[in-house]
């Protein structure tokens, strides 16, 4: 859900839309055996020689846009019969984000394009999908964001090995059935279920619909636990202390990981506050998204993880959550920055937010303004201001100093390109005091 028009960040960091991701002429190839013509003996022989495909094989695969894109086979599983062609393959589209990895049928693959060189180490990888207890603990216990650039090659391989195939395909949450994006380390007894049923209020999850129905008759929550710190119209924000509501915090992490790559979870949610945004009606307060925040951050992080649930994405809630995190920083009298690395969608949302906030000020401001002043006004960390303005080419380096050059016409052009403003946070509706350790 919400992924068809998802942009991809290429290796050089630029953003591509999927439509533009594949070369136009090269991706309309016919299938070796699906053009209606009977297969020649030579083709049959070749097919039987390469089937079933090895894990690690690179081949072209027909995607949901009807075009062929390069993929790498991540895993395979046998179907009922004994034919070597009767396998399904879990593939990663090498040009796209991992959230688009999926099981495909043989007929989607163009066998003429098979590259026979199988990636090194692949043989070791196929040996077993099962996690050792140590590896499971590693995945479960660290909440710290882990991104490619922070992992050595061995840890990265380990991460990709044990998170390579989505374990849960869909979840039911409130009135939505949602397709998941990534692996999440649910307790082992849940790993044989393709679908999980979540109580939308306490976030307990179950394997069967009847269990959920029974639970809903007993569950007396109608909103997240914790304090309602913001209400404006039908929107409410709840602050949930991970220490006081441990199970809720853990459930939220399990749920969130289904949509966050390179995030690992840990059970020690005590150190975090969770800000859960809800749309409220007479049935209760329905979770739209959330962000987590460390109670004490030495790196001046004001946000650890952010998520808008897929059915609510692209409606401005992400920018609302980001704006909210900066409003909390303003109340704390601190500057803040999100924990790194940012996902592709996280980066787009932050860039859009920073651009809009900073350029709005520059447009209204008469005379010179420094990065420090901008930081004081917005609670955005100076480095983030500098990189944003640099990427917009609004910074010049003169006599050892960074100078902001803001031509109104250029500002207007950038503002237009930065997209919509998102939902506004009405600060007068925020009733909150910064976290203080209770003795
Ligand atoms: N395609 C293209 N651009 C997109 C997309 C998309 N699918 N999604 C977001 N954007 C960009 C757009 O510029 C958009 O602004 P616009 O709609 O005005 O053009 C902007 O990001 C933000 O849009 P919002 O509607 O305010 O954000 P949304 O509610 O969709 O939430 C979020 C953004 C939270 C990043 C969401 O995509 C999400 O939950 N993703 C999965 C989890 C994730 O990656 N979180 C960030 C990890 S980094 C961290 O946690 C510190
Ligand atoms: Zn419940």
TrEMBL record:
Entry-linked CDD domains: CBD_MOF_like, NAT_SF
PANTHER family per record: HISTONE ACETYLTRANSFERASE, HISTONE ACETYLTRANSFERASE KAT7
Domain MYST-type HAT: 163-434
Gene source species: Gossypium schwendimanii (Cotton)
Family: Belongs to the MYST (SAS/MOZ) family.
InterPro entries in UniProt: Acyl_CoA_acyltransferase (IPR016181), Chromo-like_dom_sf (IPR016197), Chromo/chromo_shadow_dom (IPR000953), HAT_MYST-type (IPR002717), MYST_HAT (IPR050603), Tudor-knot (IPR025995), WH-like_DNA-bd_sf (IPR036388), Zf-MYST (IPR040706)
Name by which UniProt lists this protein: Histone acetyltransferase
Alphabetized UniProt keyword annotations: Acetylation, Activator, Acyltransferase, Chromatin regulator, Metal-binding, Nucleus, Transcription, Transcription regulation, Transferase, Zinc, Zinc-finger
Region (Disordered): 1-49
């Amino acid at each position: 859900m919400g992924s068809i028009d998802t942009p991809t960040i290429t290796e050089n960091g630029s953003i591509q839309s999927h439509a533009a991701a594949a070369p136009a002429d090269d991706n309309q190839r016919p299938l070796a055996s699906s053009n209606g013509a009977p297969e020649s003996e030579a083709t049959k022989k070749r097919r039987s020689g390469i089937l079933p495909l090895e894990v690690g094989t690179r081949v072209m695969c027909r995607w949901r846009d009807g075009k062929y894109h390069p993929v790498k086979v991540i895993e395979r599983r046998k179907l009922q019969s004994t034919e070597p062609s009767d396998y399904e393959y879990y593939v990663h589209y090498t040009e796209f984000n991992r959230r688009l990895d999926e099981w495909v049928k043989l007929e989607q693959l163009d066998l003429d394009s098979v590259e026979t060189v199988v990636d090194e180490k692949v043989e070791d990888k196929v040996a077993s999908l099962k996690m050792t207890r140590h590896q499971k603990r590693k995945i479960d216990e660290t909440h710290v964001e882990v991104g490619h650039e922070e992992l050595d090659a061995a840890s990265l391989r380990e991460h990709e090995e044990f998170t390579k195939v989505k374990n849960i395909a869909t979840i039911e949450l409130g009135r939505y059935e949602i397709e998941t994006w990534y692996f999440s380390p649910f307790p082992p007894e849940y790993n044989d279920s393709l679908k999980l049923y979540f109580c939308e209020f306490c976030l307990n999850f179950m394997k069967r619909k009847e269990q959920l129905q029974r639970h809903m008759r007993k569950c007396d929550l109608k909103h997240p636990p914790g304090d309602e710190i913001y209400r404006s119209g039908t929107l409410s924000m709840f602050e949930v202390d991970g220490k006081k509501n441990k199970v809720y915090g853990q459930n939220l992490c399990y749920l969130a990981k289904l949509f966050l790559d390179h995030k690992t979870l840990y059970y020690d949610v005590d150190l975090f506050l969770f800000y859960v945004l809800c749309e409220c009606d007479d049935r209760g307060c329905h979770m739209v998204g959330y962000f987590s925040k460390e109670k004490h951050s030495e790196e001046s992080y004001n946000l650890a993880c952010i998520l808008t649930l897929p059915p609510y994405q692209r409606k401005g809630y992400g920018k609302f959550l980001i704006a909210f995190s900066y409003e909390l920083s303003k109340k704390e009298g601190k500057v803040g920055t999100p924990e790194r690395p940012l996902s592709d969608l996280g980066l787009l949302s932050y860039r859009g937010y920073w651009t809009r906030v900073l350029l709005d000020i520059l447009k209204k401001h008469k005379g010179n303004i420094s990065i420090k002043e901008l930081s004081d006004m917005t609670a955005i960390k100076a480095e983030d201001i500098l990189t944003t303005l640099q990427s917009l080419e609004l910074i010049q380096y003169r006599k050892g100093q960074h100078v902001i050059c803001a031509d109104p016409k250029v500002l207007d052009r950038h503002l237009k390109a930065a997209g919509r403003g998102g939902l506004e946070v009405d600060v007068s509706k925020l009733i909150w005091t910064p976290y203080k350790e209770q003795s």
